[in-house]
From TrEMBL:
<dbReference type="InterPro" id="IPR033740">
    <property type="entry name" value="Pept_M24B"/>
</dbReference>
<dbReference type="GO" id="GO:0046872">
    <property type="term" value="F:metal ion binding"/>
</dbReference>
<dbReference type="Pfam" id="PF01321">
    <property type="entry name" value="Creatinase_N"/>
</dbReference>
<dbReference type="InterPro" id="IPR000994">
    <property type="entry name" value="Pept_M24"/>
</dbReference>
<dbReference type="InterPro" id="IPR000587">
    <property type="entry name" value="Creatinase_N"/>
</dbReference>
<feature type="domain" description="Peptidase M24 C-terminal">
    <location>
        <begin position="543"/>
        <end position="603"/>
    </location>
</feature>
<dbReference type="Pfam" id="PF00557">
    <property type="entry name" value="Peptidase_M24"/>
</dbReference>
<dbReference type="InterPro" id="IPR050422">
    <property type="entry name" value="X-Pro_aminopeptidase_P"/>
</dbReference>
<keyword id="KW-0479">Metal-binding</keyword>
<dbReference type="GO" id="GO:0005737">
    <property type="term" value="C:cytoplasm"/>
</dbReference>
<dbReference type="InterPro" id="IPR032416">
    <property type="entry name" value="Peptidase_M24_C"/>
</dbReference>
<dbReference type="InterPro" id="IPR036005">
    <property type="entry name" value="Creatinase/aminopeptidase-like"/>
</dbReference>
<dbReference type="Pfam" id="PF16189">
    <property type="entry name" value="Creatinase_N_2"/>
</dbReference>
<keyword id="KW-0378">Hydrolase</keyword>
<dbReference type="GO" id="GO:0070006">
    <property type="term" value="F:metalloaminopeptidase activity"/>
</dbReference>
<comment type="similarity">
    <text>Belongs to the peptidase M24B family.</text>
</comment>
<dbReference type="InterPro" id="IPR029149">
    <property type="entry name" value="Creatin/AminoP/Spt16_N"/>
</dbReference>
Length: 603
């Protein structure tokens, strides 16, 4: 099984490690230290060897930070982790703070004192975020001090091994374009802006650009490494020697020089007089300082891989359709199991996770999960990013709701789906909330929109029915998804937060409105959908883009209050379920197929 159910975090970590860190800081002449969640590659999901925030505090969420001072400390998380952080971090040692509202800069401004020396690791902070931290610290009279060695690494005695998975080719039948073509295309873009090279630090960008995949990050087939792409299409790829095979070098070709990771710094130092593009959102401050010291002219700009990677080509979209059809059959088998064996009131969250994983494994195509499944029974479903452990494992009790958010990694695509089902009989309130969430999901699925529209402009559609009932949810409505890459990718998203990236054809994005009643239940309905090219609407004046739904699995009919749906919304549900039956039905047999036929019949 891919997923484990131990809790790698918890308050004991902070109690054990915080005094040790303070002792090390004092010995180094420091009054504090900033601990971001990010690693050297700005990963969302951090390998255990680089999860310094978890080591310091016990918090294991995918977004957060901490500040440790001599006599106080704080941990910062966003709205997704309000409950989790209180369960994992000792409130007597760390003050709980909001990561978004003020965040670390506000804390430094409030708690910093004249003469304080607060350390930071320049490889873990983007230059923009570091500028904000520096201004805040200096506003209180404190000073930020860059450190050549991270003090946590110096005292982390039982540090897990640094990941060294082999880097392997990703065949062109899946990528739809050769790596040489991608490098040439992006190299031409560098020429157009008179740049000599770009330093690429994002593992996802490296995987896409060189048509390779790795295994250094759990649930995401990423290789940890760096690259320099030049305007003539040639490149240097920096990887630890243990990750490189003769087959990989042959696959990359003679225009790509594979070099040991230790040669990255000397290569940057040799770029004197070169115009070098660097993305301040993905490259840490360390790169900027190295290139500045070398005498290079730094051109700040978005990683040129990000947008092409987001706009999937025909082969990638076709592969994603196949992956979702395969995955949909596995999920439908699981939903049938939930509708039968899962209704006893004795099944637990971990058993449900394992059952779903086994159905996916039965496809014989599953490479990994795309993230640890969120298996939330009753009140655990109200914890947006809940991760079940042996300590929190809860029964799927009758008269409750069960939320399961999960996904798979396949060579041809990445999936992410959430379904909410009733265990026993649901209350009228549960059905009302479910139907409101469904109405928002349908609105975002059916919308047509002109070129230049951003996800930020569409977000309210998914919330309208909830708002009408005085309800809302505190997470984004949609995130980008890769193709056998990250289950979360940019630059696009659908959220209240302003995003200037327009939705473009080929972008895959989730559609996942929800509702969460703390201490009671959670509801989320999530499909992935791909942006379709602009086409005319009869009688209209402008071509409009739209969405094609990729995810294929039934939505719980027993939770839908039909009278709350419009005729168009009912038609959408019936049409979607007809497609599910058409695509998934032939893959099932026996009782599961009979169940699916009933689960997808018209409302």
């Amino acid at each position: 099984m891919f997923q484990t159910y131990d809790d790698p975090g918890g308050p004991a970590l902070g109690r054990k490690h915080l005094p040790r860190l303070r002792k090390a800081l004092k010995a180094a002449g420091l009054d504090g230290f900033i601990v971001p969640h990010e690693d050297e590659w700005q990963n969302e999901y951090v390998p255990p060897a680089y999860d310094r925030l978890a080591w310091t505090t016990g918090f294991t969420g995918s977004a957060g930070a901490a500040v440790v001072l001599g006599d106080e400390a704080a941990v910062f998380t966003d709205g997704r982790y309000t409950l989790q952080v209180r369960a994992q971090v000792d409130g007597a040692l760390f003050e709980y703070r909001d990561l978004i509202d003020g965040g670390v800069p506000a804390y430094l401004r409030e708690r910093g004192k004249p003469g304080m020396r607060i350390g930071y690791d320049p490889k873990l902070h983007s230059p923009d975020s570091l500028d904000r931290l520096r201004v805040a610290a200096e506003g209180s009279g404190a000073q930020l001090v860059p450190l050549a060695r991270n003090p946590i690494d110096e005292i982390w005695d039982d540090r897990p091994p640094v990941p060294m998975a082999k880097v392997v080719p990703q065949q062109e039948s899946y990528t739809g374009e050769s790596a040489a073509s991608k490098r040439a295309r992006l190299g031409d873009g560098l020429k157009d802006e008179s740049a000599d090279a770009v330093v690429i630090t994002s593992p996802a960008s490296i995987a896409w650009l060189f048509n390779v995949r790795g295994g250094d990050v759990a649930r995401t087939p990423l290789p940890l490494g760096e690259a320099v792409l030049r305007s003539d299409g040639t490149a240097d790829l920096f990887l630890a020697d243990e990750k490189v095979s003769p087959e990989l070098k042959q696959w990359l070709g003679n225009q790509v020089a594979v070099k040991p990771s230790e040669e990255l710094q000397p290569t940057l130092a040799s770029m004197r007089g070169k115009r070098v593009r660097l993305d301040p959102a993905t490259a840490s401050a360390w790169y900027f300082e190295e290139l500045k010291t070398a005498g290079a002219e730094i051109v700040r700009g978005t990683d040129p891989v990000v947008l092409p990677r987001a706009c999937k080509n025909a082969a990638e979209i076709d592969g994603s359709r196949k992956a979702h059809t395969r995955d949909g059959a596995a999920v439908s088998r699981f939903l049938h199991w939930l509708a039968t064996d899962g209704q006893t009131g004795k099944v637990q969250e971990i058993e449900a996770c394992q059952k779903l994983e086994s159905f996916r494994a039965d496809t014989r195509a599953l490479q990994d999960l795309s993230f640890d499944s969120i298996s939330g029974a009753g009140p655990n479903g109200a914890i947006v990013h809940y991760r079940v452990t042996t300590k929190t494992n809860r029964r799927l009790a009758r008269g409750s709701l069960f939320l399961i958010d999960s996904g798979g990694q396949y060579l041809d695509g990445t999936t992410d789906i959430t379904r909410t089902v009733a265990i026993g009989r649901a209350s009228p309130e549960m059905k009302d909330r479910f139907t409101r969430v469904l109405k928002g999901h349908i609105a975002l699925s059916r919308v047509r929109f002109p070129k230049g529209t951003t996800g930020h402009q569409l977000d309210a559609l998914a919330r309208m029915s909830l708002w009408e009932g005085g309800l809302d949810y505190d997470h984004g409505t949609g995130h980008g998804v890769g193709v056998y890459l990250g289950v979360h990718e940019g630059p696009h998203r659908i959220a209240k937060m302003v995003n200037t990236q327009p939705l473009e054809p080929g972008m895959i994005v989730s559609n996942e409105p929800g509702y969460y009643k703390t201490g009671a239940y959670g509801i989320r309905i999530e499909n992935l959908q791909v942006v379709t090219p602009a086409s005319d609407i009869e009688g209209g004046e402008r071509p409009m883009l739209g969405f094609e739904t990729l995810t294929l699995a039934p939505i719980a009919r027993e939770l839908i209050v039909k009278k709350l749906l419009t005729k168009d919304e009912i038609a959408w549900v019936d049409s979607y379920h007809a497609t599910v039956w058409e695509k998934i039905g032939p893959q099932l047999d026996g009782e599961a197929k009979t169940w699916l036929e009933a689960a997808t019949k018209p409302l």
